[in-house]
Write a structure and sequence with these properties.
With 445 residues, this protein is an alpha/beta fold. The chain is built from 14 helices and 13 strands.
Amino acid sequence: MIYHEPFDYKTNEELLKAAKKLNIQLPFQGDLSPLFRKLEIGGKTVPNRLAVQPMEGADAYFNGSPGELTWRRYRRYAEGGSGLIWFEAAAVGPEGRSNPHQLMLNNENLESFQSLVKDTRDAAYKAYGDSHDIFCVLQLTHSGRYSKLGSEVSPKVVMYNPYLDKSTKSLHILDDTELDELQEPYIETARLAYHAGFDAVDIKSCNGYLLNELLAAYGREHSRYGGGFENRTRFLTEVVHKIHANVPNLCLAVRLSGFDGIPFPYGFGFAKDSPLDIDLTELKALIRRLLLLGCSLFNVTAGNPRYKPHLGRPYDRCLPGSQFPDEHPLIGIKRLLNITKGLQKHFPNVPFVGTGYSWLRQFFPYVGAAVIENNEASLMGLGRSSFAYPDVPRDLVEQGHMDARKVCITCSRCSELLRNGYHSGCVTRDKEIYEKEYQKIKADE
Ligand SMILES: Cc1cc2nc3c(=O)[nH]c(=O)nc-3n(C[C@H](O)[C@H](O)[C@H](O)COP(=O)(O)O)c2cc1C
């Protein structure tokens, strides 16, 4: 068994030696120029290959409009120089919100989203000139089993899952009619997102939320949304088809979990006959279909953060009450890189955003540059690092390297803030705001 070890490398050599010891071939190169190559997505030129991953800040107003900290966050991302900003999960309706401060776009607050997108784009133009035209994606979500109404948990599931549910009692299992009715809010929110100025919407299908769970609904009986591949992918494919038909000039993206860590037949992505082996066969078939339906961008992650968070975000400090995984973070990172590589190699001309770099601290640009150079992903997506150090692209251009004093230390406090219902951000590197926020958790204890 290889146990977890915290990050403890001061040089490239030390990191590569640790990888070698684990028998891992980590893509790595000193030439960072691949990160600054332009990329075509849906007829638009993205200025570089550095992407901000969707990261919920839980700082919207109750009506779903972006709050002050939301504005601040996106301005910081834009000023930092990333070419693509994947705006965080925005609920398609109040009953699908993960918390009362989650973004939610509707007719009433469209103007505030229009201003947010404009402000973000303007910040990028101001910093880098008119040709630095960032690509803005809005992630649309229904939180499914992690929904809250106000601050009350209000799970909506597609079937009982023994890995996630303590019992079958009081589970709200959405019936087919309820699922049918949920399609329209996606289409309407996508239409509004187009009017707000987003280049694309992502029909979020990862991390254990509603659409991810549908992909794994093998055991949902007597339903148009359960059982075989056609049924399990129905919601996603129908929504994509309808958005493409109704909002033809909006790019379509999907964030998918390569696997969610839950064994077959309760999870998605593991082989049926070998429950610990990842099997990309269905995912490839799904992506092929989504491409035919008009999707032009994919983002690949893994795991369900409420089940085995290390699968999607290797860390050095666990959330209180949870345990360290029995694996070295480099193994988790290599797994994430391999999943994206498997898909990118299968669809060489389709843009895929890769995930899982933050644990690598100041060394991730060298890994990302090699990944892009080898066409193992098209963009390098940064999650927690974007909270901590939004100006990585700027530092890479101006100084040629990252500043080790500014990196994300994967302390999980951003997740802890989110879980506890507070505004989320980097407690370590953005202290002025988020250390104070974190004190509220301490005060609650
Ligand atoms: C506080 C927090 C909020 C997140 N919010 C979202 C989200 O809104 N949508 C999403 O798809 N993933 C979300 N994620 C996952 C990240 O996008 C990303 O996949 C993960 O942090 C791993 O990347 P990293 O190693 O660069 O952090 C969130 C993660 C954290 C820690």
